[in-house]
What we know:
The chain is an alpha+beta fold. Helix content is 19%, strand content 40%. The chain contains 2 helices and 8 strands; from the N terminus they run αββββββββα. Strands 1, 2, 3, 4, 5, 6, 7 and 8 form an 8-stranded antiparallel beta sheet that branches.
Amino acid sequence: MNIKSNVPLRTLAFLSVGIIFLAAAFHYPFLQYASSFEVQVLHVDQSKGYVQCLILNVSFSNNPYAQGKIVPLFRILPYYGWKSINGIMWKSNASYLGPGQWEIVKLYPYFPTQKFEVQQFEVEAYYGQLQGYVLVNPGVIL
Length: 142
């Protein structure tokens, strides 16, 4: 099998290496942010087969990228039966956190339709590019 191209092999190699370099350069700055929050699940409130509320311990790491005070946002990512790949935004009573601080946070749905069946899911805490997450298996926590 012969493949013919009008583009010289050297040019293709240079473009390929350039694309890989750009992908690494744009991805690298975000690697430090993945563990900016530590999220620990203390309690999963469930009734009638649905997750109703979560109690979390959220701590904001003390690293060079964690500057100022922030209020984290929370997203729930159920593993099964949820139609959106973006998960569910839930309300919280989170207050301002500074680097090295922690607090107990209550998470609950904005609307009754945001409850989901008891199952394995992830909780993501984030603020801009800073984030942290935890995998939750309700059968193990209770």
